[in-house]
């Protein structure tokens, strides 16, 4: 609940206020303590973008600044003109205490790991999880868990263990027997870096291929066709098909056609009109009569044919083609380990199934449905991946503080994400064993003030001894990320892209999507404003389709939740004007 603290210097001034101003001040204090925040106004030209004015009596205003999390501090109450002048002269440095050690507190078994360099922390497996990483399994294994439960680290250790086991059994056969894969390119690079640390022996390391799922599909199709496929994303394709549908006079939007093709036709591997007419369109709210299905099928078939002539593919289509190629050939690997499985499309699951022979320790997949940023619903059993009796749920977080969890979980509201074989819902009693500072949410008067406030926050983290390489700053899109990087550099803070591999004494800057699966001590999310999140372009792409719009909001909610949970020690969120409705639902 929000609260209003009183600056010590103000207490002596309170007695000198007139009774009506005192009553107005007390009324404001009561409003904060009850959670009914009074209306405040930004201060144009203020050095500190977080300072606000709150009316307490006619022509009298209080100067309020953010304190910690949802807490605020009242500095002074003065005639409005004087309060405005006072607020403009405040420096952010004067409002916050000197930084303390940000390292979270935790149980004894983690104390050494928490105090170790963060590079070492990133590959530290919880003592209780070694058994799962090193066990011999009779078939495929699925591990689920909420944020901070160590899923990604577990995946890396599992791949390292399988490689070491293969090297011990076949020392003379140095080949890629293990695939460690994920959806995101930045995460794939991070997984590769961590594996390098765990497997310093080059012969053992050479037995693991670390690659994105799209890169695997691309290489398989290219080896079969001898031509380099050109890929397009779904939004680009939706625009192309929208224009084609309008030109053809069809009553379907480009977004609907792309979604129908990807979520029904490709997802179910439908190869004939009769199969499409008979199929169940699970998850697709808009009903299609048989005669409309015929029209959709013929339209999609024609548009896809044009794409093939051009050599243009989307990732799920490319994976479907790769699965067909592998089904006719030999498996590529003995073992497959998947990190962040929740974002894989059914065609990508089919490709992975075909890439490894069915048997002991064939697939080991880890993920969290609540960090899903795609809208694909998957039944592993229907794809030939049997995990019955070999499912594990990690319930206790040890890589994120309880305070950050408490800020992130409400973003999901009552939403339960689409799962994989029933794996939806945060585990009952999901909690963290770590504790640290409260996350900070800062409202700024304008974009320039937001960047100034960010720079101040980053300097505070650096002054607290946080290595710049363990600080990440992210926005919803590349435009925000580039602006932030430019301003931080101008302020003397070195930056590098989130996608940069290896160590770099610089703050990592990128998009929220780029944070997927990564881990930092401190994370700052900027531009979490209602006009930027959800993005206007994504809303417009829904083309008035309420179902598509709800899907967009759902995906953005999960994206923001995922981004918030990339911080171990400290989380900072800023916005200009109204915060995103995903953070605070807007009044009707």
Quick structural summary:
With 588 residues, the protein is an alpha/beta fold.
Describe, in plain words, how this protein is organized in 3D.
It is built from 21 helices and 21 strands. Strand 3 (52-57) and strand 4 (60-66) form a beta hairpin. The protein is globular. The chain folds into four domains: 3-94, 2-Layer Sandwich (YaeB-like fold); 108-224 and 322-396, 3-Layer(aba) Sandwich (Rossmann fold); 233-313; 439-576, 3-Layer(aba) Sandwich (Rossmann fold), CATH 3.40.50. Strands 8-7-11-12-6-13 form a six-stranded parallel β-sheet, with helices on both faces. It is of the alpha/beta class and 588 residues long. Residues 414-425 have low confidence and may be disordered. Helices cover 40% and strands 18% of the residues. Residues 124-409 form the UvrD-like helicase ATP-binding domain. It comes from Nocardiopsis kunsanensis. It catalyses: ATP + H2O = ADP + phosphate + H(+); Couples ATP hydrolysis with the unwinding of duplex DNA by translocating in the 3'-5' direction. GO terms for molecular function: 3'-5' DNA helicase activity; ATP binding; DNA binding; hydrolase activity. InterPro entries: DNA_helicase_UvrD-like_C, DNA_helicase_UvrD/REP, P-loop_NTPase, UvrD-like_ATP-bd.
Notable characteristics:
588 residues; YaeB-like fold; Rossmann fold; 6-stranded parallel β-sheet; 21 strands; 18% strand
- Topology-level CATH name of the largest domain: Rossmann fold
The biggest sheet, with number of strands, parallel, antiparallel or mixed sense and barrel status, is: 6 strands, parallel
Strand content: 15-25%
Number of separate structural domains = 4
Q: Give the CATH H-level superfamily of the largest domain.
A: P-loop containing nucleotide triphosphate hydrolases
Low-confidence stretches: 414-425
Main sheet strand line-up: 8-7-11-12-6-13
Query: Mind telling me the CATH class of the largest domain?
Result: Alpha Beta
Shape-level CATH architecture of the largest domain: 3-Layer(aba) Sandwich
Helix content: 40-55%
User: What's the mean pLDDT score?
Assistant: 85
Structural class: alpha/beta
Globular, elongated, flat, extended or rod-shaped: what is the shape? Answer: globular
Helical segment tally? 21
Cα Rg = 27 Å
Number of strands: 21
Our measurement of the CA-to-CA distance between the termini, rounded to an integer number of angstroms, reads 22 Å
Protein name: DNA 3'-5' helicase
GO molecular function, one term: DNA binding
Domain UvrD-like helicase ATP-binding: 124-409
Pfam families: UvrD-helicase (PF00580), UvrD_C (PF13361)
């Amino acid at each position: 609940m929000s609260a209003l603290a009183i600056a010590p210097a103000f207490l002596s001034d309170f007695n000198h206020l007139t009774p009506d101003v005192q009553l107005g001040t007390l009324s404001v204090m009561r409003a904060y303590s009850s959670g009914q925040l009074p209306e405040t106004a930004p201060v144009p030209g203020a050095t500190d973008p977080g300072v606000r004015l709150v009316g307490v009596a006619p022509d009298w205003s209080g100067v309020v600044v953010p304190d910690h999390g949802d807490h605020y501090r009242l500095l002074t109450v003065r005639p409005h003109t004087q309060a405005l002048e006072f607020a403009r002269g405040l420096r952010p440095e004067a409002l916050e205490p000197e930084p303390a050690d940000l390292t979270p507190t935790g149980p004894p078994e983690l104390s050494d790991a928490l105090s170790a360099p963060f590079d070492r922390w990133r590959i530290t497996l919880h003592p209780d999880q070694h058994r799962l990483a090193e066990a011999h399994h009779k078939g495929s294994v699925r591990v689920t868990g909420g944020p901070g439960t160590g899923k990604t680290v577990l995946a890396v250790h599992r791949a390292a263990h399988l490689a070491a086991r293969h090297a011990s059994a076949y020392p003379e056969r140095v080949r890629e027997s293990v695939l460690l894969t994920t959806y995101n390119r930045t995460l794939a690079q991070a997984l590769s870096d961590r594996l390098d640390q765990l497997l310093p022996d080059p012969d053992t390391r050479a037995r693991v291929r670390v690659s994105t799922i799209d890169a695997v599909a691309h290489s398989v199709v290219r080896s079969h066709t001898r031509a380099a496929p050109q890929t397009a994303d779904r939004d680009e394709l939706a625009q192309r098909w929208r224009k084609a549908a309008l030109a053809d006079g069809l009553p379907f939007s480009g977004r609907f056609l792309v979604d129908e093709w990807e979520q029904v036709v490709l997802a179910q591997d439908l190869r004939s009109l009769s199969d499409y007419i008979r199929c169940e369109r699970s998850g697709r709210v808009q009903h299609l009569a048989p005669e409309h299905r015929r029209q959709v099928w013929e339209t999609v078939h024609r548009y896809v044919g044009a794409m093939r002539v051009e050599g243009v593919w989307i990732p799920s289509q490319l994976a479907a083609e790769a699965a067909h190629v592998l089904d006719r050939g030999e498996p590529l690997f003995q073992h497959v380990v998947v990190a962040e499985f929740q974002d894989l499309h059914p065609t990508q699951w089919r490709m992975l199934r075909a890439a490894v022979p069915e048997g002991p320790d064939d697939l080991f997949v880890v993920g969290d449905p609540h960090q899903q940023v795609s809208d694909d619903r998957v039944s592993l059993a229907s794809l030939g991946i049997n995990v019955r009796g070999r499912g594990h749920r990690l319930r206790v977080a040890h890589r994120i503080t309880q305070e950050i969890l408490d800020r992130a979980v409400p973003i999901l509201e009552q939403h339960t994400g689409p799962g994989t074989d029933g794996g939806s819902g945060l585990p009952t009693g999901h909690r963290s064993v770590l504790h640290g500072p409260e996350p900070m949410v800062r409202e700024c008067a304008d974009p320039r003030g937001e960047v100034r406030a960010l720079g101040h926050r980053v300097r505070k983290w650096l002054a607290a001894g946080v290595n710049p390489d363990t600080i990440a700053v992210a926005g919803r899109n590349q435009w925000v990320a580039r602006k932030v990087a430019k301003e931080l550099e101008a302020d003397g803070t070195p930056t590098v892209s989130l996608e940069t591999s290896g160590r770099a004494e610089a703050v990592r800057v990128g998009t929220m999507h780029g944070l997927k699966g990564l881990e930092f001590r401190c994370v700052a999310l900027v531009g979490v404003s209602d006009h930027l999140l959800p993005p206007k372009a994504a809303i417009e792409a829904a083309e008035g389709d309420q179902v598509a719009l709800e899907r967009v909001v759902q995906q953005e909610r999960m994206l923001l939740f995922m981004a918030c949970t990339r911080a171990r020690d400290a989380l900072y969120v800023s916005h200009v004007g109204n915060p995103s409705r995903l953070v605070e639902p807007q009044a009707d």
